[in-house]
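@channel anyone free to eyeball this complex?
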Amino acid sequence: MGTTVTHAPATEGLSKDERSEPRHGPAEAPSPAALKRRGRRENLAGYLFMSPWIAGFLLLTAGPMIASLYFAFTDYNLFDAPKWIGLDNFSEMFADPRWRHSVRVTLWYVVVGTPLKLLLALGVALLLAQKRRGQAFYRAAFYAPSLIGASVSIAIVWKAIFSDDAIVDRTQKIFGIDVGGWTGDPEMIIYSLVALTVWQFGAPMVIFLAGLKQVPRELYEAAEVDGAGKWRRFWNITLPMISPVLFFNVLLETIHSFQIFSSAYIVGGGAGGNACGPADGSMVYTCYLYVQGFENSRMGLASAMAWLLLVAVALVTAVLFWSQKRWVHYEEGA
Amino acid sequence: MQQNRNVERRTVLKAAGASLAVAGLGATVTACGGDSGAGDGTVTIRYAWWGAEDRAERIKKSIALFEKKYPKIKVKTDFQPYLDFWKKFNTQASGGNPPDVFQNAIGFLRKYDAKNVLLDLGPQVEAGNLSLDGFRAGLEKFGEVDGKLLGIPVGSNSMALVIDKPVYTKSGVKPEQGWTWDDFDAAMKKIRDKAGRAGDSGMYGVMYLYDLYLRQNGKAFFTEDGLGFTEADLKAWWSKAEKGIEEGLYADPKKVAQIKPKSAVAAELAAGEFTWDNFTVRYTSEGKSEYGLAPIPTTDGKKTGQYLGSLMLSASKRTQHPKEVAQFINFMVHEPEVAKIMGYDRGVPATQAQYDAFQPTDPVNKAIAEYEESLVAAGVLEPITPHPNGADICEAAFLRIGEELGLGTRTVDDAVKQFFTESKTALGT
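replying in thread with the prediction:
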């Protein structure tokens, strides 16, 4: 009993001629049949290892997506069987002023928030790209908000910062601006959301930093010799050289902005009261989608809204890809 | 020796494996069987309700009492704040897994009956598991819809004007049963001028108050399948609201929105608020002042349009244990000890036995008891008007659009139009 074998020898299960060969490295070609067998075996193992992912994809992604596509054309209240109504959900959406309002709020948020965030990310990345003392600390400090930023707790903190008689309100009052907190004001609440996303500029900043490191030093040296100033070097060297990275960031952040939900939901009310801010002031698209689906039990309509969002984001992405020919420079042969 | 130890180890491993398997099996049985429970006849029922920590403590104590009396029934609880409660309930119910018994309110009876979610408790009454004796003021009829018994009231409450007492005294306003809306408007001006505070926190969005006002004028917010008032009615109501905000009679809606979920009265933004009488308890814990109850203003000096509202307990149609659920509801509404634990947390107890068991000693609960007794004495209570399927969405829309009006993002005409559009969709009319 003392010699319990815990691991099967590595060669077990291989054909005879394989057993004499080292597993890697040059070998005489094995017979086609053995190859086939090994290939099938390896495929099987591969599929086996992938199976949790495949099952997850089919059950949790593909299945629900197909179901949701079907629901988008039905009247479905969660309780009764879905009733096919064709395109009625879509025509109802376009006729609904609340829906149009949510589209406007979302577009405004994307158009104002995304460029601001990228500008700040690029600016700070330019500062941090230079060698200076405590560089690692600064990078970590600026990146930290992005790490914790997606969490619900930050949104709650944000709400506390921007509400009535909180720190922002009091600071405003010092300067003689008495307009109250931002979260109770239908005009101002969206600015607090923009501030939240801009504050989380760390992720694009890190990508910009990586891009800046790739710009060859010789280009700057050559430009300097030719008498180019700081701005000139930035416009004519840095920007074109990091344009692929810029493109990537623009794409990613735009898509992210369209999908804003949790921060809007929590800052705008969350538990108790109107979930979309005072007078729908922070009612972004996904917020209204949630209200229709879970508060009004209109899953069919909510599904239709979700698919429309998907199509809209796909279109915006396509336009961005089309536009890159004009402003994104890839190095030859790279 | 060596061999022996190995054998021993193997046995131990085997035993461990076996017990693991058994435990796993046990877990599976519990998980799948869910409520069915173990073989010894013990049954577990799930009870969901909305509310806060304070209510949780009281309910926990009540359940401990119940489990002592019915050792074969275990109760598992689950609670959320009001809005989150219904989201979760919707999801669970549509997935075929609603709680066995849950807190309910009038606005949801027809909605969930139409969706086939609610159990008719009538047969349980006939079987003797649930008693309808001893309810106050005809409350046992409260949860009846189309001949089906869909909910059992646990407590009753009534709309009231909760006031900041010192502010009212300072302004020299003494509200009395039978005061009119003109008296009320004059009082608002007095409070603004003498105490420097808005008189009300924003009554234009309180659906239940508007309902009383309509009933005073021979109408109602809801009929059995739709709205019981016209666009012109609502326009008059909201026009008055707009004017009141401009004149500083009602609190600045921006400020009210900021301090949510705290109430405007407790935050000293307004001297009063129309709400359910038992909310006085909450304001007292939130605010620094002394709070009291004033009667609802009337149109003709007599009729307030008031009725008793109530929290109810309803059961799921899919429950595996209708008998145990009925026994649980019966215990919660009749057991005197439960009333001592719960107090007026869910309104004044619905049954006479529980009403007698809890004698409030603190001024706030005493005031609530006095207020409800004064309503009975004044004879203003009427039967409630039914709420149609979709009423909950209408209420949410009324609240939201009322707020938008207050915040100035909508004109009165626009707000009225929007409310009627959304309500028609919700009510399917």
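from a first look: The radius of gyration of chain A is 28 Å.
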